[in-house]
Amino acid sequence: MARIVDVAALAGVSTATVSRVLNGKAVRADLEKAVRKAIDELGYTPNRTARSLRRQHSEVIALVLPDIENPFFTSLARGVEDIAQEAGLSVVLCNTDEDPDKQERYLRIADDENMAGVIVAPAGPSALLRHLTERERAVVVVDRAVPDDVDQVTFDNLELGRRATRALAERGFRRIACVTGPESTPTAVARAQGWREELAEAGLPAPEDLLVHVNFRVDGGEDAMTRLLELATPPDAVLATNNLVGVGALRVLSATDQVDLGLGIIGDLPFVTSPVDNVSLLQLRPREMGLSAARMLVQRIRGEAGPARQIVQPTQPVRLGAPRESGPAR
Amino acid sequence: MARIVDVAALAGVSTATVSRVLNGKAVRADLEKAVRKAIDELGYTPNRTARSLRRQHSEVIALVLPDIENPFFTSLARGVEDIAQEAGLSVVLCNTDEDPDKQERYLRIADDENMAGVIVAPAGPSALLRHLTERERAVVVVDRAVPDDVDQVTFDNLELGRRATRALAERGFRRIACVTGPESTPTAVARAQGWREELAEAGLPAPEDLLVHVNFRVDGGEDAMTRLLELATPPDAVLATNNLVGVGALRVLSATDQVDLGLGIIGDLPFVTSPVDNVSLLQLRPREMGLSAARMLVQRIRGEAGPARQIVQPTQPVRLGAPRESGPAR
DNA sequence: TTGTAGGCGTTATCAG
DNA sequence: CTGATAACGCCTACAA
């Protein structure tokens, strides 16, 4: 592997000059030309490890996610990657599996490797996260708000719950249930609170047996839906507050063909196969969230950012049935 | 950030001794104890960049995939990650978007960063890939075979096509169509060839208008399915040769409720919502493929591997309807 | 077994 | 604007 000294020797200059050419600093035109020629001839590319060691930070950012198999996060990752690529950064994807310990481990690695920055959707509180922000490392928190003074891109989850509920109420449903995530998950709680408040405002009942907490996954949605349908007085509509729970609900629905039951889903459904013409969809477009977060991070890395910013990511209006373009990936 | 010299000073030993403790080499017991205590007190962790520079390879492996939003690949990634974690390696996920140029760029980066190894599902032929294997870097190719002499984990795609077709024939279907990927995609062609051969063997017709090449995505499946249903003599069953095409086919089917039409799908359907009781599923379990590939890579990195091995990843037998446990992630 | 010291490849400082 | 040189933090001969 060619090194910078080889290039310097071939071009008849010092390594310092080669380095300057590499980094776009002022160099006499003829020397620059000679250096570029040498680089070409040797097929030289800078050793990024050495560069990182010297510069005290690498050209890699970590994207720390709780579940890499959830399309919400892969889509978000896709957005991050697109911006990172533009900025000449590579992305390391880390899967915490909703495990705070794993999360700490990955954040530690990001620190040890002197990564340029970190984007994290936190699985619980993190001492290391605070530590990183205090040490002025570039950090952006996504999707799940934390109390720390750090750049964040999140949804207004209360508002999401309200809007999705309102859409169902406006369609004439009167007994609207809510399936949401565990009480330990703030986004789940906030969306359910939005459901509660919107129903109160519309003068509709919100009995607690219509609020079901399950895990935020497909089987959670299935369980909840089954339970709701078995109720003595079942709901006439159901709000699923995330994508996977929505998938679970749809499965039960399409297996039992309950055509009359209204359904609302907060989240995107890339691989759904049953018709959703009758489903009120509040699409979150996680890719956009990834774009926002990555842009913030790049600014922070470049030192162009001031005090911590907390952005509320806008979403699509609720609509009936998925528009074609949001279906397949790409 | 504490450095190795700080630990050495605090423990009253040389940096060499600290390094030895860190790397599990023989050190006098009392010194080792002192060193560990100092490490604890300072919260020291080795700087991985410096270590990489010195050792000439890092503890990171690159996973180069053509489409990070396809559940097949995220699941595969999940498997890779699990093994990597055990082996103390981090995984960098790189999305090539089926673009050979992007792929070359990422492979180049993996090389420049002295990564410990690379797992790649190739999007077309790659000069760099050959270059890497020739330079004895740890490389494993997954999912899509290449002619090079390199570790590989792939499916027997011809056999997959045959088995899935046979399952449909055994269910009594007589006019079985095949929807597969572009003719430029070897796996798509091989699976279609399996379809052709199996039909021939069963004495069933395989007219070319029942073989449809589309893109290997959801919209491809939708288009193909629509086209097939409009045929003067439509098929009585359809084989979809990958997961996304299968999703597209299911969408059309559940929108038109063609209950009589047989369907076979090669691939896993984690987020499907319509019932699949009548679908012959040949599950590939990509996570297992990721596990195999990562194990091979780890062996190669450790120098425990000899000549290049080419593994055929086993799959599940064809079955009717998805077993419960393969539905939701996890 | 332990310590000393050189070097991995790059960039930044400081003279010239 | 250019060149020599000293770091960046770690590991590993080599010598003791």
Automatic annotation (TrEMBL), chains A, B:
Keywords: DNA-binding, Repressor, Transcription, Transcription regulation. PROSITE patterns: HTH_LACI_1, HTH_LACI_2. CDD domains: HTH_LacI, PBP1_LacI_sugar_binding-like. Residues 2-55 form the HTH lacI-type domain. The keyword Transcription regulation applies. Gene3D superfamilies: 3.40.50.2300, lambda repressor-like DNA-binding domains. One of its GO terms (molecular function) is DNA binding. This is LacI family DNA-binding transcriptional regulator. It comes from Georgenia deserti.
